[in-house]
From TrEMBL:
It catalyses: sn-glycerol 3-phosphate + NAD(+) = dihydroxyacetone phosphate + NADH + H(+); sn-glycerol 3-phosphate + NADP(+) = dihydroxyacetone phosphate + NADPH + H(+). One of its GO terms (biological process) is glycerophospholipid metabolic process. NCBIfam families: PRK00094.1-2, PRK00094.1-4. Signal peptide: none annotated. Residues 1-19 have a biased composition (Low complexity). Pathway: Membrane lipid metabolism; glycerophospholipid metabolism. PANTHER family: GLYCEROL-3-PHOSPHATE DEHYDROGENASE (PTHR11728), GLYCEROL-3-PHOSPHATE DEHYDROGENASE [NAD(+)] 2, CHLOROPLASTIC (PTHR11728:SF1). Its EC number is 1.1.1.94. This is Glycerol-3-phosphate dehydrogenase [NAD(P)+].
Length: 378
């Protein structure tokens, strides 16, 4: 397949990124919101020949002519080489890698629209951190369900990636994941800008779920922040949140080490700490007393956590995984729990105190997490 042709695993460990490695490589970014535009800049700074597709012609026009996207990235100058269009056919012509940066609930429809223009052998990479309502599918599953692509042509990229910080070229990392390690390395190489480094794995489920689940915990953090609770409460929620994320993801096939890495813990920290996070911000507004509707009205950008709560809880229920924090977030969003009760409810949930990790009763999971059985713990 074309994706891995001649590309070294350079982004995962061969020193500073060299734009020369990507010279002449044509890639497309679908979606020109804050992340699509920022990621297009990353790819251009990594030396790729990038065209970003914007749904609205005026946004495409501003990027193309002024090299700005003032609505989503105020004050950021975009690379001169960055091309923009509102025509999918133009965006996709010649592109061997297609990065998807649209809201999760519109991805399926967008895929249907772009399918006729995809180059043979093109690899699709989801940058989206949501779950589809109704089908409960992750975005890589939506891609597989919509287009007739082998797993080697479906990748995801996720990590602590607050768009505006990256647009300002503040350094960070991410995880590029695909069933084919070669393809993951190719994706990582394409976006190896001097301030953006990607590690690789083949754990698509873990990488993708890390990005989805941290949004729900960031909503919880925003809520308690809005209430006025301090750092102990937030540390407890982040820590218990990571346990909840891991307990949800591992039975679905995720590698626990992925959840402990950049796509899990790393993204959880960034999203829970940053006032720039939309999920964190949405939670804070709700914690301050705004209703969900009022909060949605105030948010000008996508806060995926709000739409992911219900499908994630549905999946958790199907699989018998308890998710007390996410459950409480849903109750606060629905208005059936006061924001101030979120953390006390977490702290007083059990009549009988229990260990922090519940894997002890599931030997297989314990072994996968810690590489040994509970009985022979050192
Ligand atoms: N912003 C970040 O820091 C960041 C970082 C990593 C991942 N993400 C993920 O990237 C995805 C996109 O988020 P974003 O931050 O760019 O959101 P955004 O709200 O900034 O932009 C969304 C873009 O999608 C467009 N859009 C809306 N409805 C559409 C439709 N029906 N069809 C096509 N386009 C449509 C909007 O016009 C806009 O250009 C989300 O899943 C988000 O979780 C965001
Ligand atoms: O602004 P948020 O809350 O959507 O988070 C953005 C990124 O996912 C952080 O990695």
């Amino acid at each position: 397949m074309s994706a891995a042709a001649g590309a070294p695993a350079g982004a995962a460990g061969s020193g500073p990124a060299s734009p020369k490695r990507n010279r002449g490589r044509k890639v497309a970014v679908i979606g020109a919101g804050s992340w699509g535009t920022t990621f297009a800049k990353v790819l251009a700074d990594a030396g790729c020949d990038v065209t970003v597709w914007a749904r609205r012609p005026e946004v495409a026009q501003e990027i193309q002519v002024a090299k700005r996207n003032t609505q989503y990235l105020p004050g950021i100058n975009l690379p001169k080489s960055l091309q923009a269009t509102s025509e999918l056919e133009r965006a996709l012509a010649g592109a061997s890698l297609v990065f998807l940066a649209v809201p999760s609930q519109s991805l399926r429809a967008n895929l249907g629209e772009l399918e006729p223009y995809l180059e043979p052998g093109a690899v699709l990479v989801s940058l989206v951190k949501g779950v589809e309502r109704g089908t409960l599918m992750r975005m890589s599953e939506v891609i597989a369900d919509t287009l007739d692509l082998e797993p080697e042509r479906i990748g995801v990229l996720s990590g602590p990636n607050i768009a505006l910080e990256i647009a300002r070229e503040q350094p960070t990392g991410a995880v590029a994941s695909c069933a084919s390690l070669e393809a993951a390395q190719d994706i990582a190489t394409a976006c190896a800008a001097p301030y953006f480094r990607s590690y690789v794995n083949t754990d698509v489920i873990g990488t993708e779920l890390g990005g989805v689940l941290k949004n729900l915990i960031a909503l919880a953090i925003g809520i308690v922040d809005g209430v006025g609770y301090g750092e102990n409460t937030k540390a407890a929620i982040i820590t218990r949140g990571l346990a909840e994320m891991t307990e949800f993801a591992v039975p679905q096939g995720a590698d626990p080490t992925t959840l402990a890495g950049l796509a899990g813990l790393g993204d959880l920290i960034a999203t829970c700490q940053s006032p720039l996070s939309r999920n964190n911000t949405a939670g804070r507004l709700i914690g301050q007393g705004f209703s969900l509707e009022e909060t949605k009205e105030q948010m000008q950008q996508t806060a995926e956590g709000i739409t992911s709560v219900a499908p994630v809880l549905e999946l958790a229920k199907e699989r018998g995984v308890p998710m007390p924090i996410v459950q409480q977030v849903q109750m606060v969003l629905e208005g059936t729990m006061a924001p101030k009760n979120l953390a006390p409810h977490l702290a007083t949930e059990d009549d009988v105190p229990r260990p922090e990790m519940s894997f002890g009763s599931r030997p297989g999971l314990w072994a996968r997490l810690f590489g040994r059985t509970k009985g022979n713990a050192a």
